[in-house]
Amino acid sequence: MNILAIVLLAIGAVLFLAGVRHMTKPFMKHPQWTSAEATITDVGDGRDPHNGRPTKVAHYTYTDADGTEHTGTMAGGSFPKPGVTMRVRYDPDDPQDSDPVRLAMRPFDWFMIALTPIGFIMGNIGLNMFN
After folding, report:
1. With contact defined as beta carbons under 8 Å apart, do 67 and 54 qualify?
2. Which of 4, 72, 100, 108 has a CA 20 to 30 Å removed from the CA of 30?
3. How far apart, in whole angstroms, are the C-alpha atoms of residue 1 and residue 122?
């Protein structure tokens, strides 16, 4: 019974921590970067700016604190129509470097969020088995 309790506790802890990490990840990415409003300019086929693979991309424009307009590209997923505004974070030391703030929850996000209470419950069952 103790081995099962330890296994449940370990699996529960891993699932719980994975869910919490995934939920907080968007808020931890580039916290020192500056936030700006961006506008989607076009959506279509293109190449992922990180790995060069063909994919669906959206281009956006934003203005930095000095008033200079920059463009950015985001890849994969579904995107709003051109003209829609969104938030981006850009590097104040290199304003051309930007990342969009997550637009919407994806199915995988919901799965990872579900892991948090599942992990908590499994860990709690494991702890109760020690008693």
Report:
1. no
2. 108
3. 15
* DSSP assignment letter at 66: T
Question: Which two tokens mark 40?
Answer: 């989607």
Q: Which residue has the tokens 């931890």?
A: 28
- Whether the model pTM is above 0.85: no
Give the position of tokens 């081995």.
3
Q: Are 58 and 73 in contact (CB under 8 A)?
A: yes
- Average pLDDT along the chain, 131 residues, taken 10 residues at a time: 76 78 63 89 84 86 96 81 90 90 65 75 76 66
How far, CA to CA in Å, does 129 sit from each of 10, 117, 122, 125? 13, 18, 11, 6
- Say how far apart CA 124 and CA 33 lie, in whole Å: 39
Cβ–Cβ under 8 Å, residues 89 and 101: yes
